[in-house]
Amino acid sequence: MEGGCDTAAAGTAMEVEAESSLFSAGLSGSLTPNPAASGVASSTTRRLGLRNSIQTNFGDDYVFQIASCQEISTLAVSLSTNALKFYSPATGQYMGECTGHTGTIHEISFSTPSSPQVICSCSADGTIRAWDTRSFKQISLLNGGASREMFSFSFGGSSGNLLASGSNSQVLLWDWRSSKQLACLEDSHMDDVTQVRFAPNQQSKLVSAAIDGLVCVFDTDGDIDEDNDLLSVMNVETSVAKVGFYGNMYRKLWCLTHIETLSTWDWNDGTRELNVEDARSLATNKWNLDHVDYFVDCHYSLPDDRLWVIGGTNAGTLGYFPVKTDPVGGAIDSAEAVLEGGHTGVVRTIYPAGSSLERLGQHRGIFGWTGGEDGRLCCWRSDDIVETKKSWISSTLVSRVEKRTKGRHQPY
């Protein structure tokens, strides 16, 4: 069996074996709506305080992605060292490490239907691996081949048995229970498939997005045939970085591109509803801080039916900017939350403390977690920033050597 663990790795003072603190579910909350319809950030903008910060390792590693499972009180991070590390989300204590990938880890998720204890990861080494977070051992492996870089994966299907992955111009589908490959969809995309996602309310529908600028919708019921099961194609016209579902019955799709544009779509009928080519400039004009250099992600609150795009600066500051369904006066509104003072470089990932934003931070006052190119894993408070006595930053940070360039996925 490939893969392994190191639950007593020497490193920073934060990295010690520890029992995970109890961390109950229900960390949901909301950003206070900003009544200002235009202009820079107003007094209603929430400036969030840093709860703590951990250096995930010595050396030149980035934090690529954060995933969490509240049911087992575990926070997972993927690093540029091709390893996964695990921490207690409440205390930041180090729990263990999984190693085995030989290429960049592109995506991690606790969404495995079989067990909340299992986390999956896909990598440039052509594999999708499952890990048991109790033993930190690899328990299964799907190998698409060394020539098939795995960029994304998603569990779904009408029976919950499908695992889809995005690879080099292909969408692969397996029955994850038997590890049998069921289909290889290779005619719909002409370049790397960067995202695959099953629709939350229509689990037989699969959305794929690629560097070729196309977003495809497939029906995965029954025997999957690309000629008959490709339902629609949406042309974003530039390389797609991330997509996600939102809106009533999750009938809408947001899309971020590698050139930092934003668009929204009705994926059921294939129509584009919003196309924001100057999204960074619009966001920059909606706060008093530095120029917005990139977008990290989008976040949707189902109870509020609101969508935010999360923009960042090269110095590590983040802002939550509402996306307006009626773009009169600009499609992006004033920043409603600012995360400042935690990072010193580009932020790669943000993981909110709850799937909704209605009662944010009512448990332990936690807003969420961020990770980036400075190697820091930061936990953010949702209470008033004036309570600085509750904030601290790890004293274990070390002088960093000049880092190698590990760019975002660039199509050109």
TrEMBL record:
Repeat keyword on record: yes
Positions of WD repeats: 98-141
Keyword field contains Secreted: no
Lineage: superkingdom: Eukaryota
Keywords: Repeat, WD repeat
Identification of the protein by name: Transducin/WD40 repeat-like superfamily protein
